[in-house]
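Ops channel
N.P.: pipeline sanity check, posting one input/output pair.
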């Protein structure tokens, strides 16, 4: 059968790395996972307990397309608690993960052929979802002096219909402060481009609180998820905040694309928001792991790294070690038993010289992984 031109998206390389790691484990090897942005912990205990009770009490059928009213209300409350933003819960849309939110946002805002700016390095699925919808992703090569985040000069004269930013970012973990976020919003709106803020790593910050675009404007789409801070990757539940006049637009699309986000996941998500002690304990683990990475990676020969303000990643420039990050990652997996992600996933032009390291797993795994990397680099001749 023939395929559409829209189906010609690139693979998500980190998933290929995960499969190679799985095969190595199947063959009996112990692999340290630094490749995937997945918390080593599961959903909070209160979330699973709430779902178990709900499964006994009700059939968990369809919900309305915008999500359970109680969950939308609680998400709106979160913006008051975290950012002192008074948010109308009617502007909250519960989605099947952040991926569902990207589909809804891009479909609601853009027509075929529209150009949407995305920072490079950046989350690869932005690019592929845009392509699959017949849109044109426009990579914005970011600079180290700008913390690998876009700046207004990067979008000047590009005739964009949209701009998407992420803070904290994947793969770098770098963040935008109020001034930097505000400048990008102003620049996008100045050329009539819709502004989308990916905030799925909010809550995972270590020195300063992440800034939500909603502190600066209501004329934006904000996307978030229960996957990262709330440790619920496999539950596939996220949310969007949209301007008041966009709610019905998004609702009609969601009704037809998804009907609703899984009811069970919404029940668990609502309960997870009350599990602050457990969530902060997880954050303490990431904080400890981050400190280990910032000390251990340079000792292992990976010294040129972006400042990891948030999330649970370290993005390293390894262009002094290789011009083929995919082959280098395969070598590290084969010889050190550590799975890492080649930068080509995040930056098709410059990613051949970068690697992403995730520190989302247990502290013991991070310690062992750093030891393995140091030994590997010593045996490779890259360390004295």
């Amino acid at each position: 059968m023939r395929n559409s031109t829209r189906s010609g998206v690139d693979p998500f390389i980190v998933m290929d790395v995960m499969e190679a790691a799985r095969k190595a484990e199947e063959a009996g090897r112990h692999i340290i996972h630094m490749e995937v942005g997945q918390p080593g912990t599961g959903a909070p205990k209160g979330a699973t307990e709430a779902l178990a009770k709900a499964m006994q009490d009700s059939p968990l059928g369809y919900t309305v397309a915008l999500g359970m009213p109680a969950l939308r209300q609680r998400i709106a409350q979160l913006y008051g608690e975290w950012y002192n933003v008074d948010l109308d819960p009617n502007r909250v849309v519960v989605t099947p993960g952040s991926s569902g939110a990207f589909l809804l946002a891009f479909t609601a805002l853009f027509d075929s052929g529209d150009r949407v700016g995305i920072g490079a390095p950046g989350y690869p699925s932005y690019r592929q979802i845009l392509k699959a919808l017949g849109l044109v992703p426009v990579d914005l090569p970011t600079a180290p002096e700008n913390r690998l985040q876009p700046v207004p000069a990067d979008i000047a004269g590009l005739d964009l219909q949209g701009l998407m930013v992420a803070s904290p970012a994947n793969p770098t973990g770098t963040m935008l402060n109020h001034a930097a976020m505000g400048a990008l919003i102003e620049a996008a709106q100045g050329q009539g481009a819709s502004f989308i803020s990916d905030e799925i790593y909010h809550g995972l910050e270590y020195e300063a609180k992440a800034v939500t675009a909603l502190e600066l404007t209501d004329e934006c789409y904000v996307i978030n998820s229960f996957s990262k801070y709330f440790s619920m990757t496999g539950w596939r539940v996220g949310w969007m905040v949209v301007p008041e006049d966009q709610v019905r637009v998004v609702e009609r699309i969601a009704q037809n694309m998804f009907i609703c986000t899984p009811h069970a996941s919404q029940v668990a998500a609502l309960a997870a928001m009350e599990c602050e002690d457990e969530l902060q304990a997880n954050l303490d683990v990431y904080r400890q792991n981050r400190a280990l990475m910032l000390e251990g990676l340079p000792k292992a020969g990976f010294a040129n790294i972006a400042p990891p303000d948030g999330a649970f990643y370290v993005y390293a420039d390894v262009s002094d070690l290789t011009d083929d990050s995919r082959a280098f990652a395969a070598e590290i997996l084969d010889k050190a038993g550590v799975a890492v992600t080649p930068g080509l996933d995040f930056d098709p032009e410059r990613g051949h010289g970068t690697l992403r390291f995730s520190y989302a797993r247990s502290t013991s795994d991070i310690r062992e992984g750093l030891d393995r990397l140091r030994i590997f680099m010593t045996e490779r001749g890259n360390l004295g």
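N.P.: looks fine end to end. The mean pLDDT is 96.
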